[in-house]
Amino acid sequence: MKWRILLARELKLFYFERENSHRNCKRIFELYGRYLLGTTYDTFLNYLNQLKYEISGLKLPSYIIAAVALLEPLRIACERIRLRKGSASGSLPEIAEELLEVLRTKEGARVGTRYPSASFCEQEHGYGQDPVPPTASRQAQYP
Question: Which of 30, 70, 99, 108 has the fewest CB atoms below 10 angstroms from its CB?
Fold first, then answer.
């Protein structure tokens, strides 16, 4: 249960938008929380309550944090492929190429985005490398 709480808080950290704060938690839950956590919306809101669950000593592994950061660009990439091909889904290499393209456009279009940069994803060492020490802030992780 502690890992679910950490994952719910990480999802909110990456995908919360101040401009639309009254609908954010519902949007985050509908897009990702329902599938990743397997809980109800009320349980998701309880997980976000800092006073109810004190788990400050635990941290998510860096590869899970990177995966959470890539959820939105991956969703956009899959949607683009689906629109191009009709109802057919893309292959893994097609999805990876489109994901890198999404990251490149986000890198150039939005300053202060929390998504990983395309250059980070294209490094020769691959995706399994720990990109940021666990003590670094998540928002400073993806400038």
Answer: 108
Nearest one of 65, 73, 76 to 129, comparing CA atoms? 65
Tell me the pTM: 0.56
SS3 69: helix
The yes-or-no verdict on residue 108 having pLDDT over 50 is yes
Backbone angles phi, psi at 69, to 5 degrees: -65, -30
What's the angle, vertex CA 131, arms to CA 127 and CA 134, rounded to 5? 130
pLDDT tens digits, 4-13: 888 888 888 7
Q: DSSP state, 40?
A: -
HEC letters along the chain: CHHHHHHHHHHHHHHCCHHHHHHHHHHHHHHHHHHHHCCCHHHHHHHHCCCCCCCCCCCCCHHHHHHHHCHHHHHHHHHHHHHHHCCCCCCHHHHHHHHHHHHHHHHHHCCCCCCCCHHHHCCCCCCCCCCCCCCCCHHHHCC
What tokens were used for 19?
């401009």
What's the pLDDT at 86?
77
